[in-house]
């Protein structure tokens, strides 16, 4: 019997969720410590095209590793599917899972196009299954904590958010399509989506409009690697989102040297991404990426909560600074720190959401409709940058549960 804590309070389950995994690549690798540490889920099957990953999955977890998502979704041992295949495949794989009656956790971004996202949300709704989009950094416990503190209203109204992240994203090994914007490449669909999710989570979700500029500055990697945007929310909050995947300055320095995945960063790792890329032939880049996947790569040991760079939320009576361990509250006359629990592994809150949805029919913030709204913001950033105009946001949604409970 496992006793877990969820937003709405405590629940008990002796019945772990039987999860099938579609795609045993990098994203799955990042979920391995979470799945392994949390008794509320067991992995019962997988689907992957590479024999090496399939063999590694069966050796570690038992069950069957299929070669297709269709076969995975036909397996009666699977009740929920975690879809961790490349962006462009999310739509087909979500439709297969929904039609098979499986609950779905799909990696961000929900889809590349708004049309696909709409089809996916409708398919899940028609099938009566839960569709959760994540993990994204909006699940990070310090973000959840800050959202709750803001929603409680003790600090007055939320006025402004600064979200800032400088990384080497564009120089990590990539599949070719990850460097082509119209196929979902670049920092918008893979990275902005995190920052948008975080900011929307803090501000309640309902964006009004956005004005943005993007940068595609490296002809060898011809996609957007940076952006800055001003996003207005219903209710009056304004957020500034800035991201560079070309960075030399690493903003994790301002997060106590804790990396995005909650790991301690060594100063000796400076420049590794560019150095490694410079040492290989570009045709070998896909193979280099594969060395980070299941059956080959190493899992990362987190010591803190994950994060997506410095975030500061300004309210009337306090400024909240998110850290990997919680929220620093700079009040009118006092300064304090509220801890956000870490462990037993990172991404516990993603499993909280899955359990709440599948076992208790409690809808998390990050539904399919939520993922669609965040995707709308990605497209609006691109459109604003190309037209030079602010773009109205028309498909936004708020959080669907009460932040102040729990
Ligand atoms: N939340 C996060 O922190 C995070 C981190 C990395 C990636 N992602 C997301 O995960 C998704 C995958 O990205 P990635 O970096 O892991 O890519 P990846 O290339 O490392 O992994 C994708 C995997 O899918 C497999 N695959 C391809 N076609 C398949 C099919 N038809 N059926 C089953 N498996 C198939 C590939 O063999 C590969 O192992 C993307 O949408 C990305 O945005 C999320």
Q: What's this, in brief?
A:
This protein is of the alpha/beta class and 406 residues long.
Detailed description of the structure:
This protein is of the alpha/beta class and 406 residues long. The chain contains eleven helices and 17 strands. The protein has helices at residues 26-37, 51-61, 69-74, 90-99, 114-127, 141-152, 187-203, 272-278, 285-290, 348-360, 368-387; strands spanning 2-6, 9-13, 17-22, 41-47, 64-66, 80-83, 103-106, 131-133, 158-166, 207-215, 226-233, 238-244, 311-315, 318-323, 326-331, 335-339, 391-392. The strands form three sheets. It has a nine-stranded mixed beta sheet with strand order 16-15-14-13-9-12-11-10-17. A hairpin with a 2-residue loop joins strand 14 (318-323) and strand 15 (326-331). Helix 5 runs antiparallel to helix 11 (368-387), helix 6 runs parallel beside helix 7 (187-203) and helix 7 packs across helix 11. It is globular and about 60 Å long. The structure holds nicotinamide-adenine-dinucleotide.
